Prior knowledge:
Layout: E1 3-7, H1 12-23, E2 28-32, H2 45-50, E3 58-61, E4 64-67, H3 69-79, H4 90-107, H5 113-122, H6 127-151, H7 166-180, H8 189-198, H9 202-207
Helix pairs in contact: 1-3, 1-7, 4-6, 4-7, 7-8
Amino acid sequence: MTMQLYSYFRSSASYRVRIALHLKGLAYETVPVHLLNHGGEQFASAFSALNPQSLVPVLEEDGHHTTQSLAILEYLEERYPTPPLLPAALAERAQVRAIALAIACDIHPLNNLRVLRMLTQELGVSEERKKQWIGHWIKLGFAALETQLATAAQGSRFCVGATPTMADCCLVPQIFNARRFDVDMSPYPTLIAIEQACQQLDAFRLAAPDVQPDAP
């Protein structure tokens, strides 16, 4: 039975999982969950029954539902280990996870839709100030990643090693988000070089937001 991915085309967390699925050559069906229509389809009772957090993505396989993008990436890695999204060496595996967590836990949550709604709808923050908030956290995180990746002796075009890993699955969607909010990417040439290397691969192009079935 084909896997189903409950996804929103512009969700960076869903984007991460789409990249991983394509890198592993796994067939899946997209089940669109529009985060804005009708107050947010993620709050509908049918979807909340799958994920009480009311967040995408959700991966369904064999009647089981896995939530949280990094947990899904780990699930895919364990269930379908070839090609790998984690290096063989223990230290490098930890490095990949550290980069992925820095993006998924330290940068992305502060710019997530529900946080931005709280800022504007509940706290009365203006659109201009909201944009400053978004830019601040992305720039802070990207500056650290740029230093980390520029100084690491990787000998590779990707975040860690000679092939894409979970770290790249997280980085590319976050760069997409940064551009959406007009963050100047020129201070981060290493991140841009990694993104450009990733975009040469079909897996990243097929996972892009603008080619998803629910993209407008």
